[in-house]
Amino acid sequence: MRVLVLHSHPVEESYGKALYKQTLESLRKAGHEVDGCDLYAENFDPVLSRHDRLAYHDYPGNTEPVKSHVERLKRAEGLVLVTPVWNFGFPAILKGYFDRVWLPGVSFELVDGKVESRLRHIRKLAAVLTYGATPFRAFVAGNPPKKIVKRVLRAQINPLRPVTFLAHYDMNNCTEETRTRFLQKVTSAMERF
Predict the structure, then answer these.
(1) Which comes out higher in pLDDT, residue 70 or 113?
(2) For this UniProt entry, which segments traverse the membrane (predicted)?
(3) DSSP letter string over 29-63?
(4) Is the pLDDT of residue 188 over 90?
(5) Three-state SS sequence of 155-189
(6) Burial category of 46 from C-beta neighbours within 10 Å (exposed 0-12, middle 13-18, buried 19 and up)
(7) DSSP class of residue 86?
(8) What is residue 124's predicted lDDT score, i.e. its pLDDT?
(9) pLDDT value of position 73
(10) What is the pLDDT of residue 113?
(11) Residue ranges with strand state E in 56-149
């Protein structure tokens, strides 16, 4: 299976980068063809410009500024997000990726005023997230990233398929032991993906 792995952490020598590298390695070990997309390393421009917004519904012209990313998404059969959670949301670069790449004609189409998915070719979805917050604080805040993955993205891909959701909470108080344990959990989950 061809798996697109989206990564959005700007620091090279970080735990987030270690999670990304381990995710890629484990997926490859499981026999998947992996397309690692490190948004910062690729200098992805997350800004949806005025021009982009005006052309938003004009498929296929709307894809021209992000054509290579659209092609990668269309080839994917699996999707894995590896990202930190900042202020109970995704980093702007990842949010911008969704705004600029998951366009009408690419990820969905409006048919008689109803949204129809164009991502049914993606058979598996997973997320590997790190939170500064504790699980309780994330719960009290409504845990928007978890809902986006398990509800919004899942609905766009296939609402009947299970989602692998892995989160290391309370990174502000993590230890070498908690990080190692979570890295092992990610390794195991990606080898079964």
Answers:
(1) 70
(2) none
(3) HTT-EEEEEETTTTT------HHHHHTTTSTTGGG
(4) yes
(5) HHHCCCCCEEEEEECCHHHCCHHHHHHHHHHHHHH
(6) middle
(7) B
(8) 97
(9) 98
(10) 87
(11) 78-85, 108-111, 114-117, 124-131
